[in-house]
Amino acid sequence: MPSLRALVLNCTLKPSPAPSSAELLGREVLAALADHDVDGEMVRVVDHDVRFGVSTDEGDGDGWPAIRAKIMDAHILVIATPIWLGQPSSVCKMVLERLDAELSETDAEGRLRTFGRVAAVAVVGNEDGAHHVTAEVLQALNDVGFSIAANASTYWVGEAMGKTDYADAGPKPDTTGSATKTLAANTAHLARLVADRPYPPA
Predict the structure, then answer these.
(1) Which region holds residue 194: left if phi is over 0, alpha if psi is between -120 and 50, else beta?
(2) What is the Cα–Cα distance from 119 to 9, expressed in whole angstroms?
(3) Coil, strand or helix: which one is 68?
(4) Which CATH number characterizes residue 62's domain?
(5) Residue 20 CB-density burial (10 A; 0-12 exposed, 13-18 middle, 19+ buried)
(6) Which H, E and C letters describe 129-151, residue by residue?
(7) Are 98 and 64 in contact (CB under 8 A)?
(8) Number of structural domains in the chain
(9) CA 168/CA 29 separation, integer angstroms
(10) 91 Cβ partners below 8 Å, 6+ apart?
(11) By residue range, what is the domain housing residue 92?
């Protein structure tokens, strides 16, 4: 059984050490993945000087190459994003734009380097839009070569126009916890399958 690593990219707009609901849910995903012998870490993207662009390195101290190296060292990538105006955060969209560069990065047999990696998404917000955000993020990740397991998403959405954050929501709903456990089980399972039997060249 291969040893697996996961990376959660926290796409909150808030720099550390500000509390982040996306970080909380992302860490719950990491804890659930640990139950399946997956080691992991989280990177809060806004803490790094990631430049806008669609290349692997925008130069001049761009913070993306170091994050990209962590992505390439991991078997599982989890995007954790808040909802703003029914959309993924601007930080999340920037991450997806930077991942667009992977369409030009191939191995010796012509396969995208992301083909050996599995992705999932965790979404939090105080308004509706979790399904829309999940659809946008998972489709983009699949477009750039990541595999997606069944039920590879988890989310929590508070009352519309409310002010309660995930951290302050009291006992967490069974639905979110159950979704997180399923995400972890299925994502770890698929990651092991792909690691053991890589996709063939086209």
Answers:
(1) alpha
(2) 11
(3) helix
(4) 3.40.50.360
(5) buried
(6) CHHHHHHHHHHHHHHCCCEEEEE
(7) yes
(8) 1
(9) 18
(10) 11, 12, 13, 45, 46, 81
(11) 4-196
The total number of residues written for the chain in this structure: 202
**Omega into 200 within 30° of 0, i.e. cis?**
no
Q: Closest Cα partner for 145 from 193, 107, 178? A: 107
In whole angstroms, give the CA distance from residue 102 to residue 104.
5
Query: For strand 87-88 and strand 76-84, is the pairing parallel, antiparallel, or unpaired?
Result: antiparallel
Tell me the mean pLDDT in the region 3-7.
Answer: 96
- Report how far residue 181's alpha carbon sits from residue 71's, in angstroms, rounded to the nearest whole number: 22
Task: Tell me the backbone φ, ψ of residue 126, rounded to 5 degrees.
Answer: -105, 20
Helices 21-34, 174-196: crossing angle, 10 deg rounding: 60
Res. 3: pLDDT tops 90? no
Q: CA 43 to CA 7: how far, in whole Å?
A: 8
pLDDT in tens, 65-86: 999 999 999 999 999 999 999 9
The structure's pTM equals 0.95
Classify residue 201: in a domain, yes or no.
Answer: no
Asked if residue 202 is part of any domain, the answer here is no
Residue at 151: amino acid letter: N
* Residue in 164, 91, 79 with CA at minimum distance from that of residue 117: 79
The CA angle 38-41-43, to the nearest 5 degrees, is 150
Q: Is residue 168 part of a domain?
A: yes
